[in-house]
Design goal:
Largest interface: A-B, 80 and 86 residues
Oligomer: homodimer
Distance between the termini of chain A: 16 Å
Radius of gyration of chain A: 33 Å
Number of strands of chain A: 2
Helix content of chain A: 25-40%
Largest sheet of chain A: 2 strands, antiparallel
Shape of chain A: rod-shaped
Structural class of chain A: mainly alpha
Strand order of the largest sheet of chain A: 1-2
Number of helices of chain A: 6
Order of helices and strands of chain A: EEHHHHHH
Chain lengths: ~230, ~230
DNA sequence: GTATTATGAATGAACG
DNA sequence: CGTTCATTCATAATAC
């Protein structure tokens, strides 16, 4: 409705401003054209905003743990804007000593230790390396789940009730779909700061095609609504 | 700002085009102004391009890994023609939008929404993907329990400390409790300085076809490195 | 250097 | 409401 410069003022593209005794060609934009331009830019702004929102939402779930109580990680979870590494997640890796102690405790048969027990274990293990209660908790959870899964895989329908503690059956393999699309993140906000330098070199940067701006925005100028 | 054509750069904002026996005021853009405009649009185009690329990359994993874990629908393309499917039963996975909304609601402080509230939330979230009231209920329950657990882990602060001089990592807190993990957005919208008036009311009109925007100005030159 | 495995971490759902 | 289970994902570790 506002993107059409229908002969208002006569074309409105190039205007001839007659100086005093000379002809000066200047680029002229009518209000309508200006409005269209603004609209176009606003559309960009909206798109960018929405994309940014989407990006935030998508990354939120994964980066929600922006930083953990990781001890072996020296770099801060949130580096200065100068650095590109925003997500510096490194998972805890138990030291051999910690692993041995954990397995010993697990082998005692006391599955799912209480919170108090977790604290004690954590305190004990902290002497052999950085660790937190969450690590211990997760370790026991995973250990338990893993044992259970192994057993289930070994005896799907077998009546055998005796399971060795060290039963390793390579017959079962899980087709793990190791898909890692996060390896390469094409987005580089830093790079896209001001990449439009090549256009600057052009001396003549305003072609008669200025009207195209309208074309982009006003794809459907008439009959937009039913009725 | 763009709409405000002030005579900066010595080009003159308003030009007086003398018609035949009358004075016609028209908006005039100097080359500098035009260049600024082009730059801004170009910036938007670049940002949009990058964001779209990134978004596609991010979404690619969701679409390809489990087939359809985003919508949780039956439209799984990887289903064998034979008919036997790999138990499409997959636990509900909130879409980024849903997650964002949920977190927002949770952040409001109204823990444990009523049944009626659950219904409302479910209805709202259903606009962004398949979801059921049970999912919302479970989500809130889990969320609450998780927060509580985090507190519990910190609350019992034992005043007794064994080693502190040797501890290089005194901070053991979890930044996860803090909301909005994205504090800093490298995207500098500020440079663009686009008013973007009432675009918010439009809702989401982000269409893939909008990609053509990248060719507003630089449609002819800079045909990429290929060729 | 790439592919595979092992396993820590996250989370929806269920149990009590 | 708190705890636990089952499943999945990402990544350190490892094999190739």
């Amino acid at each position: 409705e506002l993107g059409e410069e229908r002969g208002e003022g006569g074309g409105g593209g190039e205007g001839e401003a007659m100086g005093e005794g000379g002809v000066l060609y200047v680029k002229v934009m009518t209000d309508e054209q200006m409005e269209v331009l603004r609209k176009q830019i606003s559309i960009y702004a909206t798109i960018c905003e929405q994309l940014v929102e989407m990006h935030k939402a998508v990354m939120a779930q994964r980066d929600s743990i922006a930083g953990m109580r990781l001890g072996n990680l020296y770099c801060d979870p949130l580096m200065t804007p100068g650095g590109h590494k925003i997500t510096a997640r490194q998972r805890w890796t138990p030291t051999p000593m910690q692993l041995q102690i954990l397995e010993s405790i697990f082998d005692q048969g006391n599955g799912t230790p209480s919170k108090q027990k977790i604290k004690e274990i954590t305190l004990e293990l902290s002497q052999h390396g950085q660790i937190s209660e969450t690590n211990v908790y997760n370790w026991f959870q995973n250990r338990r789940a893993r044992s259970k899964r192994k057993q289930t895989a070994v005896l799907p329908n077998n009546t055998e009730s005796e399971i060795e503690a060290d039963d390793e059956s390579p017959t079962e393999k899980k087709p793990k779909a190791t898909n890692s699309p996060y390896k390469n993140m094409p987005l580089r906000m830093d790079d896209l700061s001001i990449p439009c330098t090549e256009m600057n070199s052009e001396g003549r940067h305003l072609e008669p095609e200025t009207n195209r701006i309208q074309g982009i925005y006003a794809s459907d100028n008439s009959s937009k609504s039913s009725g």
